[in-house]
Amino acid sequence: MAGEVKFQGAFFRRDISAKALQRSATGSKMSYKSCGVDIGAGDALVEGIKPLSLATARAGCVGSIGGFAGLFDLAAAGYSDALLVSGTDGVGTKLKVAQDCGIHTSVGIDLVAMCVNDVLASAAEPLFFLDYFACGALDGSVTLEVISGVTRGCQLAGCALLGGETAEMPGMYRAGEYDLAGFAVGAVERRQNFPQIADISEGDVVIGVASSGLHSNGFSMVRTIVEMSHLSYSDASPFGTSCTLGDDLLTPTKIYSKSLLPVLRSGRVRAYAHITGGGLLGNIPRILPQGFAVLLNASLWQIPPVFAWLQHIGEVGEEEMLKTFNLGVGVVLISSALHADSVFAHLAQQGEAAWRIGTVVLQQGDAGSVVQVANLGESLRKSLQLCDVASLNGGPRAKSQQRPRTKVGVLISGTGTNLQALIDHTQAPSNNSAAAIRLVISNVESAPGLDRAKKAGISTLVISHKGFKSRLEFDVAVDRALRAAGVELVCLAGFMRILTGDFVRKWHGHLINVHPSLLPSFKGMNAHQLALDAGVRLTGCSVHFVEEEVDAGAIIVQEAVPILHGDDVEKLSERVKTAEHVAFPRALELVASRRAVLHDDGKIHWSNS
Q1: What are 433-492's pLDDT values in tens digits?
Q2: Sorting pLDDT into bands at 50, 70 and 90, what band is 23?
Q3: Which of the four, 124, 421, 472, 609, has the lowest number of CB atoms within 10 Å?
């Protein structure tokens, strides 16, 4: 039998094994989540990505994401004796700008662009894409925003998002940081024989195809120069646009797959160079046979102001500019003089700006430069004249005095004439609009309104309702896409689907619609016929907040249209449509600027601020 041990100076330790005993008492054990990796959040993310991936499906896809590997059927894609062409790349430190700005969709487009533009050098059609997303702690909304950009890039390239990997690695990245890598696989028939580098000869024409801006190269220098300028990414852009500096720097890399692939396979182009890291000096030599060089004239193409501003503020030498940036030329093509005009005709038909920027010549001696560029300094000085004077002279920051623009998503199903009215209003610099359209979603792949958005540089997404078992599942996919793009306000512009109550409640006060009558009269379908049948002399349109009851929400703007003798539905519809093009932008502006705010009681609070 043990007795109590006593001695002088004794005391009792109460800390030994305290934590272990506490764990034992509560039954808690170590988990992967407690170590910083949330498997449940990762699984939920995959479910959120599935509808985005589905929107990129194309001929050749087998199955869907979520398995161990993605499958692709070359025969179903139309290939009989194909060579596979692969490319991998990242976005570099442009990611730091995106993370500092809190804008994540555009870098997803960049990721796809950097890969698929490379495989085009073999005249390969991009077939599928894989992405790798790495972070310290998974933020589902940020990740979905990035992946929505990836899916948009895949749609622009015509390839499928076949799979990917999300790696949550605590301790590897700081809070809010992430990294991206992409992998594209394309195909070209063995008989295609491109590029035809051996056929390049003296006198061939060097064609420059316009870039959309910086693309995704040189951002370590860009970020350093921005720091030197004392501007912040939220300041007004010094490049003569109505955007912030951050928005302009994050302009997505142009994707050339659909516009250039036909001409690359036509036999009229001998070689293609993607102007990425290394600039014009580093990439053009990769497509020239030994003993040849090119003479370029910078006065023959348009150098965007961003490059002139960077060169001026950073005091960057001309050679350094040439081997760091694309200077407005995203792709270089080499064609014979005989075929050059037809290549230009194709590019114009595809909406690509292009210039005859130089000529292939014989290299002068072993030490001769392979790429020589004339008139660069003069061209940069001309471009500099388009920049903001205060930013060039180290003047005070041109801070934007207004609150950040409200990010808008538009849902459409058809021609998109109301969408066009919204685009014209929000993109006109003179309007100083409080709204910026970030995303257009259609449930119809062939909707002409999608082309309107693309021409305006707005991201688009097709989410077909036919791919879902229920209205609710479809609405959930649309909701996820909108939130991934950071959308704050949704406009229904000819969207021919009835939204579920769940969707309407989620977006209550941030969802507006235009109806072709003076509500509360003539709700629902066939409003024009109802107005004609009723014999009223006045109708019009109403823009209103959306409630669960059809056409019952608080009215923001109305525009009256008289009914004339001899009117039929077609004539009346045209005049009301014209009124909608006036009313909808007005209502959008009121809501985006928060001059019209819907309260919980269903009534609008009006403000002049």
Answers
A1: 899 999 999 999 999 999 999 888 888 899 988 888 888 999 998 998 898 888 999 999
A2: low
A3: 609
Give the integer Cα–Cα distance in Å for 510 and 410. Answer: 12
- Measure CA 113 to chain center: 11
Tokens of 236: 């007004």
How is residue 184 annotated by DSSP? E
Asked whether 213 and 245 are in contact (CB, 8 A), the reply is no
140-160 residues labelled b (16+ CB within 10 A) or e (exposed): bebbbbbbbbbbbbbbbbbbb
| Per-residue H/E/C for 478-540 | HHHHHHHCCCCEEEECCCCCCCCHHHHHHCCCCEEEEECCCCCCCCCCCHHHHHHHHCCCEEE
CA torsion 312-318-323-324 (nearest 10°) is 0
Q: What is the pLDDT averaged over residues 257-277?
A: 96
Nearest to 59 by CA among 79, 82, 87: 79
Q: What span, in angstroms and rounded, lies between the C-alpha atoms of 185 and 59?
A: 14
Using the CB atoms, write b or e for 489-509: b if 16+ within 10 Å.
Answer: bbbbbbbebebbeebbebbbb
∠ Cα 234 240 242 (to 5°)? 50
* Mean pLDDT score, 297-323: 95
| CB < 8 Å & 24+ apart, contacts of 33-36 | 35/170, 36/136, 36/137, 36/168, 36/170, 36/171
Which residue is catalytic, options 425, 510, 515, 528? 515
Interior/surface letters 415-444, b for 16+ CB within 10 angstroms, e for the rest: ebbbbbbbbebbeeeeeebbbbbbbbbbbb
Residue 389 backbone zone (phi > 0: left; psi -120 to 50: alpha; other: beta): alpha
DSSP for 554-604, written as a single string: PEEEEEEEEPPTT--HHHHHHHHHHHHHHHHHHHHHHHHTTSEEE-TTS-E
Q: Computed from CA positions of residues 219, 224, 227, 228, in that sequence, does the dihedral angle turn out positive or negative?
A: negative
Listed in sequence order, the residues at least 6 apart from 489 whose beta carbon sits closer than 8 Å to its beta carbon are 406, 407, 408, 409, 435, 510, 511, 512, 588, 591, 592
- Are the beta carbons of 358 and 294 closer than 8 angstroms? yes
User: Which letter does DSSP use for residue 122 in this model?
Assistant: G
Please report, for residues 23, 315, 346, 354, the alpha-carbon distance to residue 301 in angstroms, rounded to integers and kept in the order given. Answer: 70, 22, 18, 8
pLDDT at 54: 85
pLDDT, tens digit, 9 for 90 and up, residues 172-221: 888 889 999 999 999 999 998 899 999 999 999 999 999 999 999 999 99
Q: For this structure, is 565 an active site residue? A: no
> Angle 569-592/417-427 helices, nearest 10 degrees?
40
Rounded distance, CA 231 to CA 226, Å?
6
- pTM, two decimal places: 0.64
Q: How far apart are CA 469 and CA 73, in angstroms?
A: 26
Q: How far is CA 65 from CA 51, 129, 146, in A?
A: 10, 12, 17
Encoded amino acid at 92, one letter:
G
